[in-house]
Amino acid sequence: MRTPVRRISQQEFGDISYEALHHVSAIHNQIGRFLDEKIYKRELAFRLPGVRIEEPIDVVFESFRKRYFLDVLVGDGAIFEFKAVESLAARHRAQLLHYLLLCNVEHGKLINVRPENVEHEFLNTQLTQADRTQFEVHLSRWDRATGAAELPELLTALLRDLGTGLEIGLYEEAVVQLLGAADQSEADVGVSIDGRIVGKQRFRLISPGVAFKVTSFEEQYESFEKHAQRLLEHTTLRAIAWINIARKKVNFTMLRS
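-> structure tokens emitted (257 positions)
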């Protein structure tokens, strides 16, 4: 993975953040709160030296390639994620945390320009790349005969390189591509109740009749498994390849109908 972001101290990030927020507030006061976030970012880059916008971050593992873009990078070490929404939500914090972990840095800030007054939140993490690549792998409930026998080794290698804690979609996309199943990775599956076909639902597959699901539960696995088994009872799926990626433990489970 290539990252152009340097790891800076909390004090340095605080100083950069204070100056950046001063300019964002001035821009907000001048042009109001109803413009697209890109306008505020571009004006910030004009007013504050050392600002780069839409900075690319490349994730690379074997043949897999994916590019993300940081909204605002200041001084090569301070990441800011801009939003223009009614209020900040958990998904916005999760997105910024994803970027911090990808770049192996501790500090970032969310800035929301839509409210009457600029909304902003610090986000900090002490997890390092080394921390996130130390985990246990559990395979006791994995059935290689059901399909995609190489998946555990492939995903474990990916996690040893990128680490745990990232967005689930990244892991799923990487696995599907690396398995060479991109062309058949989604299919409409029939759903029945009491023997009646009531419709179809689209699932991500890793082999014919085997759905693929990644989660990141730290606990409460039982509820997911209970409902997944109910799903299997009412679809034509043969199995669900379920991988739960927690901070220190990765469970590979094959749920069968």
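The radius of gyration is 22 Å.
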